Amino acid sequence: MAETLHTLSAAELGRRLTAGALTSRALCEALIARYDVLNEKVGAFTHLDRANVLAQADASDARRQAGQGRGPLEGIPVAIKDNIAVKGQPLTCSSKMLASLVSPYDSHVAERLRAAGAILYGRLNMDEFAMGSSTENSAVRKTFNPWDLTRIPGGSSGGSAAALAAGLVPLSLGSDTGGSIRQPASHCGVVGLKPTYGLVSRFGLVAFASSLDQIGPMARSVEDCELLLAALASADARDMTCFSSDERALTAAGEAKKLRIGIPKGFLGKGVAPEVAAAVNAAIEFYRAQGCAVSEVELPSADLAVPTYYVVATAEASSNLGRYDGVRYGHRSAQASTPVEMMTNSRSEGFGAEVKRRILLGTFVLSAGYADAYYNRALRARAKIRAEYLAALSQVDVLLTPTVPTPAFKVGEKAADPLQLYLEDIFTIPANLAGLPALSVPCGQSGHLPVGFHLVGAPLSEAKLLAAGRLFEAAHGFAHQQAAL
Amino acid sequence: MAEGFDIDHLAKLSRLSLTPEEKALYSSQLNSIIGHFQALAQADLPTSIDDARVVRESALRSDVPGPSLGAEAVTRIAPASRDGQISVPRVVDDEA
Amino acid sequence: MSSSSDWEVVIGLEVHVQLHTRAKVFASSSWGFGQEPNEQVDPVVLGLPGTLPVVNREAVEKSILFGLVVGAEIPAHCSWDRKNYFYPDNPKNYQLTQKDFPVVIGGSVEIELPGPSRNVMGEHKHVRIHHAHLEEDVGKLSHAGSGSLVDYNRAGVPLLEIVTEPDLRSSAEAEAFLRSLVAMLTQAGVADCDMEKGQLRCDCNVSIRHPGAPLGTRTETKNLNSISSVRDTVIFETARQVRELEAGRTITQETRGWNADLGRGYVLRDKEDAHDYRYFPDPDIPTLELSRATVERLAKQVPENLYDRQRRYMDTLGLPFTAASVLVANRELAEWFELSVAAHPANPQGIANLVANDLLRDLSAAVGSTTGFDEAAPAPVSLSSCPIKPAQLAGLVKLTDEGVISKQQAKEVFAEMFKSGQDAAAIVDAKGLRQNSDTGELEKIVQEVIADPAVAKSIAEYRAGNEKAINALKGPIMKRTQGKANPGLIDQLLRKALG
Question: Are A464 and A259 in contact, with CB atoms under 8 Å apart?
Fold first, then answer.
């Protein structure tokens, strides 16, 4: 049995654990064995503390034995992106700057997972400080797409998506600032949800762009994604942007076949690869055939999304990353005789090229004489984009587009042109700017590479997105898919 | 609004030291990205920004002291420390 | 400085005061003076990756309370911004502050200038407050050999920055403003304002102009930590600017420091080097709605204004300025005084006299001396451990007013009350101090004394018109009554007996 455990869903693993047909230790041992064979090849994880994992598994098995199981995630491993704090584990953000940092505290989601009985399983590779769309910006290692090891897995949660696609873990956590959960989910053929801004506490998520960042669940099926979301989403007084208990009433799913689906005008046009357009059009036809009302909607300011995002995100990042100066923790340069030199050299040595580029850009858009033209205008554009999305979502239940215009590209292919890479996020960025929930679901292939479609809903309409995803998933063979390795 | 930027000034504000090659590369990349931002300059935008979120006083923290990490934990993760304090090169008055 | 009579100095102050809270402003870590370095630091204070600020309700309420004390507007909303600059004492390398939407807008502080003498009240005027904003303090740097050491205990302590309009016109006005402000902050329980603990710091903007002319170029002297430093800075900077302008030079807009040991200022940086703080709204703290219910609740906590109270004491209770000003300087003392007056409303002046002199003197002696932000002010005393209760003091004054004891005896009784906490009447009885006002008995003694030939000479002198000669007769009467005779009654009986 052990050789097939990695193919099972979290829901199925949960059933076997509950039935006593499986122990968490056996599951974790099987996954560790697979990790030992495959992680070198895929590069999804940056750290795995085997003894710690097995100790957690034993504790879980003991709870279950004692009749004190904590629910559907009891004993199930969840791998965590390396920008989410887990006490006693590394928190490197795949940066040289934090290479030596061990977190002295738990994030809210880590606490939630412990409370749910889950096994906090290893640290996942990412673009440094979540800045990137290919995981090529990791200072630790490269991560490769399990479907084609010459290609990128997407990013910045590339490790989270690749670990799922390679069958290294049944569930993972990612973070999404402009598409960092959904874009790698699409490239790796898995499911990824970016929740409504404020649904999941950011306490313990290393900030990239605070007004856009959100932790979300990733899995190989919509059902598993939903299972993990339920464990993550709760009020947390330590994050003032997180909804309080009385603010988090989720919209009911309703009947999936009666959902009104909006197709943003022009989104399937220029820049979308034909195979991607074909797969997404097939998904649209599927919903129409199921009885969903499909209509075209206007989002006139869509072209402003990418520039608005890169102004807002880099501005916040330039400030958020100010704390990495070599004084209190993290990398300190040996070459310094004054504090200014020490900070400057520590930062110059500790940060990679993309991080520096975004800090410079963010510093520029906030600097005296330019803030009005860039940062302040971007805030106004953001308000306009949000208003247009909310207006569209008052007419339809969900907006459907491709997740990414093109399938995963070759490692190194776009490294030289940051602007080209920024355009990878053209469909995913608006949900972050408007704080809306968004889901990527596998819907086909371009050659041997997975393709996903993207659903965006009104605030707190996660259940509708997931219901729509389940309807599609149930009728197609993409759920639980794994790359052959 | 597409006036140029001073890469040296930006690097100084950002506490980054750049090699001449990096300066040239970042200058050209930033120029290209900022060029893409021009769409913002031409757009017809609302003058007021609606605050996406307003919180009430119930979101505030009670004035109840919580635990401290303690000097031992603080200095353990610090790159350099002495007598419970974090040490840095000597600070000259208002140097920063 | 004869030439400076042509010049008018214009001063604006930015006062940073640590608010009276238990926890820090955006973190739950405690704070307070005298802890070992870095013992009051949690992950949020240290700016560890992934940590987030949550605003302390008490810090917001203390800020609102200050606003209500100075009659400011409390807006419907306030919000926080990031001020970005790198410095080793600044854990996140940005400071959370309020740039565009502060918690307090406007208001004014009434000040009292020194009078021509100690007994005469000086001129009053109002200094407008531009706004006050709630922000976080930074850590502390100290120098050790070739390096510096950082202690983050102070980082994150709630700071209210109170910014005045440029309404002050002299060092004396600046001093008076700070005295008044400190009194209002401490009396409302907003802050303790203890300079030794660095709880109050001040930035001082100074410019000069010819009266009526537009404002001149100003300089800002930062981080002054006592009233005398502010006064000395204004004097120094005024003289320097007059000298510069009269020599035909111009004033540079610059940031300056103050060396209190040398008594002189120095340039920190000029405008060219001004920081580019890249302010923007903090995305971690949503806009905060300030409810009217909270404002109304806090309004009930606002104590009577210092100078309204002083006017009431002088106009309604008839107190002299000296006593009134001493009493109102300490809210606890004033309230203690008022309780005492309530127990014996007939003689507020008598009560004020004992409170402002005897009680305050004994309480101060018990406290010892400390140095506050205002070095000239007396050590703050607390009434909580005062052995005398207000009604007991009222009882003492009442006994005096009724002639049961003399004023001289009252002092003695007061001293005993302060020692033992007993009622005045009990002490008077125990010591047998009750005055003899039995007219019959005293008349008898008077007759006996004036019959004594030893006083015949004094009687003759009195009858010849020497009023003072009568006093020589009082001593023997007092002696015979063991000092218990009511002096007024003796005087009356003597005059009657001598015709």
Answer: yes
* Domain ranges for chain B: 7-42
Above 60 in pLDDT, residue A163? yes
Q: Which long-range contacts (CB under 8 A, 24 or more apart) does B73-77 make?
A: B73/A104, B74/A328, B74/C38, B74/C41, B74/C46, B74/C152, B75/C38, B77/A101, B77/A102, B77/A104, B77/A328, B77/A329
The answer to whether C127 and C165 are in contact (CB under 8 A) is yes
Cα Rg of chain B, angstroms: 23
User: Could you report the per-residue pLDDT of B27-50, keeping only the tens digit for each?
Assistant: 999 999 999 999 999 999 988 777
Which member of C37, C87, C143 has the closest CB to residue B84?
A: C37
Residues C34 and C172 in one domain: yes
- Is residue C205 within 8 A of residue C218, CB to CB? The reply is yes
The answer to whether residues C309 and C292 belong to one domain is no
C280 and A84 within 8 Å at the Cβ level: the answer is: no
C281 and C385 housed in the same domain: no
What's residue C455's pLDDT?
85
| pLDDT score at C4 | 46
CA end-to-end span of chain A, whole Å?
Answer: 18
How far apart are alpha carbons A380 and C278 in whole angstroms?
18
The count of structural domains within chain A is: 1
Best residue in A348, A351, A372, A460 for a mutation probing chain B (most B CBs within 10 Å) = A348
Instruction: Give me chain C's average pLDDT, please.
Output: 91
- What domain range includes position C322? 304-430
Is the same domain home to C292 and C312?
A: no
Distances (CA, A) of C62 to B57, C101, C132, C134, C487: 14, 17, 12, 10, 55
Which of C297, C321, C347 corresponds to the end of one domain?
Answer: C297
CB contact under 8 A, C148 and B89: yes
Asked if C111 and C104 count as a contact pair (C-beta separation under 8 A), the reply is no
Question: Are C29 and B51 within 8 A, CB to CB?
Answer: no
- Name the domain boundary from C391, C412, C430: C430
Taking the C-alpha atoms of residue C331 and residue A188, their distance in angstroms, rounded to an integer, is 70
Residues of A that are catalytic = 81, 156, 180
C173 & C267 share domain: yes
Domains: count for chain C: 3
C79 and C219 together in one domain: yes
| Residue type, position A196, single letter | T
Residue C403 and residue C445 in one domain: no
Shared domain check, C312 and C212: no
From the list B13, B26, B59, the residue facing A367 with the nearest CB is: B13
What CATH number did the domain enclosing A11 receive? 3.90.1300.10
Mutant choice from A236, A375, A380, A420 vs B, greatest count of B C-beta within 10 A = A380
Query: Is the CATH number of domain B7-42 3.90.320?
Result: no
Contact B59 A348 (CB under 8 A): no
Percent of chain A with pLDDT over 90: 91
Nearest CB partner across the interface for A241, out of C84, C92, C286: C286
Chain C residues in contact with B79 (beta carbon < 8 A): none
Q: Find the domain containing A309 and state its range.
A: 1-485
